[in-house]
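Quick one:
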Amino acid sequence: MWRTCSKCDGSFFRGGVSISSYCPDCKYKRKKKAHAFIEKKRTYKTEATVSKGNVIGEKVLGPSIDCGFCGESFIGRSKVQKYCFPCGNERKSGRQNPFDCAVCGEKFWGDYRQKHLFCSIECKQMLRQHLDCIFCGEWIDAERSLSTMYCEGTGCKEGWKRVLHMREERDGRGQMYTPKTRVDILRKAGARFSILQEFMEAEE
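Output:
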């Protein structure tokens, strides 16, 4: 069956499957171009075989690859290998990919299913917006998420909501506290001094 090549100005060729759109010459050129591109990215290193001072052949050692983690060139076992052997040994599982720390710029391994910004606890603390609890002032534990604003205290979140309500003079249904009463309530709840000072100034 005669078909029309979509590559070389519509020339006719015979044979091929029904979905074939390239003539044999164009197929050969496409495969050659693809092969040259791959070999350009990963060339094989060879070692000369010497006998009695004469080079008698070459031994293929493997493809020369740039490590995707450290960037060093190494001789790999296959073309699909991405990382050198020391870096590959540090990789704990196939689900880990290299990431760049947003603070120090150091590369580290992390799960590809999560968004990693830091390589260590120290770098994580530098990215944190709130280092201490916005209600009581206690230090926020480094293991907690970056977005948290409260310490591990059970009443800090509710205490901060009460502060926001008091600022809008919403003391509760049918309630209207004096500034002194608000200060006493917040002091018993464990509010930090800056919050107490804010309501003390309103009292004056």
